[in-house]
Amino acid sequence: MNFNSIELGASIIFATAVLHTFCTGYFESLAKKSPRHAGLLHLLGEVEIVFGFWAAILIIFMSLSDSLDFAKSFLEKLNFTEPLFVFAIMIVAGSKPILYFATQILHVLAKCLQIILQTRSTPTLYFLTLGVTPLLGSLITEPAAMTLAAFLLRDLVYRHPCSKALLFGTLGVLFVNISIGGTLTNFAAPPVLMVASTWDWSSAYMFANFGIESCIAIFINAIGATLLFQRQLVEPSTSSHATKIPLAVISIHLLFLFGVVFFAHDPIIFIWLLLFFIGYTTAYPKYQNPLILKEALLVGFFLGGLVVLGALQGWWLQPILEMMSPTAVFYGSLALTAFTDNAALTYLGSLVTGTSLEFKLALVGGAVAGGGLTVIANAPNPAGIAILRQHFPGGAVSAMYLLIAALPPTLVAIAAYRFL
Question: pTM of the predicted model, to two decimals?
Fold first, then answer.
């Protein structure tokens, strides 16, 4: 079988994997009806398993179509730095001292806003979590910001009884805001990172072309969600209080966090830092919670599968991009992002030669604006799902409800990028 046939087979498998992400809830319901095969059906109902599972099917297909050596050669040429980085940053950013530090900062900001606006504490914290934390993604990277925001929202919202509108509405705004929140610099958002060096885009250039628009869209989305759901937000119990964590412990954790971010493109170094971090938390457990190793591994597995499957989709994606005008590229990349990782999309766009500046800006703008539409649209999304999934009905996040919930904040992002 020739390579073109393998590419066609890979695209069919990829399309099946995308369809599978919309059916995870169905597999969960089947698991309840079929106790004998509940284990396998629960596994197929885990959205983080989907792309890793179908990537394995692809490798088996390639081995049978050509040879095992061909499949191994294909895998050896792939770059798995991003899945490894997301795995590492989730564990560090999700540690108790980091979450405590972020929570204390938000509480200080919330008290200031409460004095000025005379509002309740929970809606204020909710607004800040959806409005400020995504902007941190431009400094500590989007996966780290997603991890922080998801944990903060878990304690603030998801642990309490929630309507379906609040569950999915919050998640939709979070995903969109995280996707556009990393565009203030040239290193924090995966789709920007893929083109920054090729097109020589500096952080100053990113802020000049995307920064103000992204900030406006994020705050509009956060304000809109807060006004819509403020009556459903439960005030925290006054009797509960968090254990204070010493500044020295927080400082050490922040050093590990910034070390992993600084060496984000050097997996040998950031994995070494991660192992050192795990050793530190084991040696000094007093101010620690169990690390989210399982959740981080599942997300890494998901993204690794996406790398394998996405590597063979260029044969149909790149020709589509080449024939589009800048306006069509914006809306086309936004739509395509719902079905493929936006970082893979911008990378393929960077391979197109002779493109105008308008084409480049439209490609990146559309890719980040559509980053909240599906679980696979943006690399940090699976991290948010892994942390919050257990609070959704049946322990599964409906892809259709997520798409519907993400549409309004996505429209805000579109308006900001196209008309401001």
Answer: 0.85
How many Cβ atoms from other residues are within 10 Å of residue 416's Cβ? 22
Q: Are 183 and 378 in contact (CB under 8 A)?
A: no
Percent of the chain residues past pLDDT 70, beyond the cut: 98
In 10 A of CB 72, how many CB atoms? Answer: 12
Q: Which residue has the tokens 């108790």?
A: 96
Q: Is the pLDDT of residue 288 over 80?
A: yes
Radius of gyration over alpha carbons of the chain, in Å? Answer: 21
Average pLDDT over residues 276-297: 90
- In eight-state DSSP terms, residue 245 is -
pLDDT for 120: 78
Q: Give the separation between CA 171 and CA 253, rounded to whole angstroms.
A: 27
DSSP track, 319-359 = HHHHT--HHHHHHHHHHHHTTS-HHHHHHHHHTS-S--HHH
3-state class (DSSP) for residue 411: helix
What is the spatial distance between Cα 47 and Cα 398, in angstroms, rounded to a whole number? 10
219: its two tokens = 């705050």
Give ∠ CA 209-211-214 in degrees, rounded to 5.
110
Handedness of CA 88, 368, 302, 168 (dihedral sign): positive
Q: What's the burial of 57, exposed, middle or buried (CB within 10 Å: 0-12/13-18/19+)?
A: middle
